[in-house]
Amino acid sequence: MQNDHETSAESRLAQACHFIDAATGGISPPLQLSTTYARDPNYEFIGSYSYSRSANPSWEVLERVCAELDGGADAKCFASGMAAVCAFFETVNAGEHVVAPRIMYHGSQDWLRRISEKRSIGLSLFDAGDIDNLRRAVKPGKTAVVWIESPVNPTWDVIDIALAAEIAHAAGAVLAVDATVASPVTTRALEFGADIVFHSATKYMNGHSDVVAGILVTAREDERWQEIKLVRTLTGGILGPHEAWLLLRGMRTLFLRFDRASQTALQLAQHFEAHPRLQQVLYPGLESHPGYEIARRQMTRGFGGMLSLLVKGGAEEAKRIAGNTRLFVRATSLGGVESLIEHRASVEGPHSQVPKNLLRLSIGIENCRDLLEDLEQSLETS
Ligand SMILES: *Cc1c(COP(=O)(O)O)cnc(C)c1O
Predict the structure, then answer these.
(1) Is the pLDDT of residue 230 over 60?
(2) What is the CATH number of domain 254-381?
């Protein structure tokens, strides 16, 4: 292809942005395991690398592809999603203030609580159901970062990214979006005004439940970005070459997997919405969902593969239903090719704000009818 702008994102991704190894013609990148790089007799580096914690070739194709996928200026990969989250929040100074949703990924919130206690960083949590709560939570001139997720895990409330960006910017803050659940297939958060996008690449990006990784993508290579890169080098939360290679391989099928999961999740959500054993089905693609209108605008290619069931009864009833599935695997995590079911409150522990009767489903790529019948039999026999 001569003109990249005419090629769709899914075609570009399938070919890792038309990657061809200059040295060999290989269409899959070589795996460079070296930790250190030699100098010539004049003591100049032979290539552009010195030591693998600072930079190494196994990240480069991956990071280029990630930057393009989200439409960013640059991307960096990390040892895990949480390593990326921690590196990002290292850029917040003592005395500054952070705003985040009350219900969000528990690990990120635990980290925020920790730095707010240990480093006198202010922290305000807002209820994501109403954007006015965010307006009230920001402190102009003091808030450095607004961190949001959309859809919010595990209620799948939808936050209007464009509005959140307006509010953050008016207060002098940057907007960072955890886009793990939406993935860049359906939401390119930078295009809605976000400054930084975060992905737990462990989930949809890799998609095969066999790599732990994190990605940050920036709209601009500004001072904060330089600091994030420095923090990665100094704290060493780097992705191993094997993991980087596997992640890029998994990403090539991201669109296929995500489209399939979205289609199946929508069908399951519609089918089970009125089920007598269920109080409610939470899925942003249902017209009954409070975030439906924003989701239609913001999730441009399907509503994703994540849904939650609020069962009639409490934790016992929910766990019994999860216990009786035969095809759904009882495990945490999301975004893999295999469908998972979990009782979220049990996973999050005693401080969990998640309803006790909530079952979280991550839809994979199995046959939709098989998944539907499995849930049907489990609801009937539990
Ligand atoms: C899994 C997850 C994370 C953390 O990522 P790890 O790769 O597990 O470190 C952060 N945010 C969301 C929404 C997640 O699902």
Answers:
(1) yes
(2) 3.90.1150.10
Name which residue sits closest to atom 4 of ligand 1, judged by CA.
Answer: 81
**CATH code assigned to 9-251:** 3.40.640.10
In this structure, what token pair is assigned to residue 21? 């190894």
Q: For residue 151, is the peptide bond before it cis, meaning its omega torsion is within 30 degrees of 0?
A: yes
C-alpha 211, offset from chain centre: 14
Every domain range in the chain assigned CATH 3.90.1150.10 = 254-381
CA 10, 12, 15 angle in degrees (round to 5)? 105
Residue nearest to atom 12 of ligand 1 (CA): 105
pLDDT value of residue 3 = 55
Q: Band the pLDDT of 1: cuts 50, 70, 90.
A: very low
* 5 confidence band (pLDDT: 50, 70, 90): low
**Distance (Å) from CA 241 to ligand 1 centroid:** 20
For ligand 1, whether the C-beta of 247 sits within 6 Å is no
Mean per-residue pLDDT of the chain: 96
Which positions are annotated as active-site residues?
Answer: 53, 105, 178, 203
Q: Which two tokens stand for residue 316?
A: 């016992």
Mean pLDDT confidence for 106-122: 96
> Looking at this protein, which amino acid is placed at residue 169?
H
Q: Is the CB of 200 under 6 A from ligand 1?
A: yes
pLDDT computed for residue 86 by the predictor: 98
Check if the beta carbon of residue 105 is closer than 8 Å to that of residue 153.
Answer: yes
CATH 3.40.640.10 residue ranges in the chain?
Answer: 9-251
Distance 105 CA to ligand 1 centre (A): 7
Ligand 1 centroid distance, CA of 214 (Å): 8
For residue 347, pLDDT beyond 90: no
- Rounded Cα gap, residues 183 and 179, in angstroms: 6
